[in-house]
Design brief:
Layout: E1 5-10, H1 15-31, E2 34-39, H2 42-49, H3 54-57, H4 64-79, H5 95-106, H6 110-122, H7 131-140, H8 145-151, H9 155-170
Parallel strand pairs: 1-2
Length: about 170
């Protein structure tokens, strides 16, 4: 067994992050590695690096986005991720969800929160940037949605998310 830790720079807004975490969890189960999911803002990384989402970056390249969609379907099929669905509200502003992840981690319920929000985003297609949907989803998962939502406004939570995003850029994300 391994004592290795994999840092995963993570934003709920990326379907690739959802899928990659599913694969990493399988690898971790097989090897004993630990996956350290680090909340950040993908939009902040794009802004800091002068980059943009692939669907925008490749919009002018004939067939590129269609090919990316085909590869996504192949990946999902190969790994048996039958529950995965592109969120009908995509792209979703993830600021609330990412701050919520930090708050949930601080409250000791980070793993349950991560699973609940991923399922809502990429399996049931909920609009997780709607505060009412956000709170209801967390409550349905047995979490205290109101407390987590309130904690998203805490200055320390906001600062940690900004620091995580800056650190991700510094690491080359």
């Amino acid at each position: 067994m391994s004592s290795r830790t994999v840092d995963m720079i993570y934003d709920f807004g990326s379907p690739n992050a959802y899928l990659a975490r599913r694969v990493l969890n399988r690898i971790a189960a097989r090897t004993g590695a630990t996956i350290n999911v680090i909340p950040c803002l993908l939009g902040g990384i794009f802004k800091a690096t002068g980059n943009q989402a692939p669907m925008l970056a490749f919009a002018g390249i004939k067939g590129k986005n269609e090919y990316e969609a085909l590869e996504l379907r192949r990946f999902v099929a190969r790994h048996g991720f039958d529950a995965f669905r592109i969120n009908p509200h995509f792209p979703v502003n993830t600021l609330l969800a990412m701050r919520g992840f930090i708050a949930a981690k601080r409250m000791g319920v980070g793993d349950a929160y991560l699973d609940a929000v991923e399922t809502a985003m990429w399996e049931t297609g909920r609009k997780m940037d709607d505060p009412e949907v956000f709170v209801a989803t967390l409550n349905e998962a047995g979490l205290d949605g109101a407390a987590i939502a309130a904690a998203t406004q805490d200055a320390a939570v906001k600062a940690e998310l900004a620091a995580n995003t800056e650190a991700a850029v510094a690491r080359g994300a």
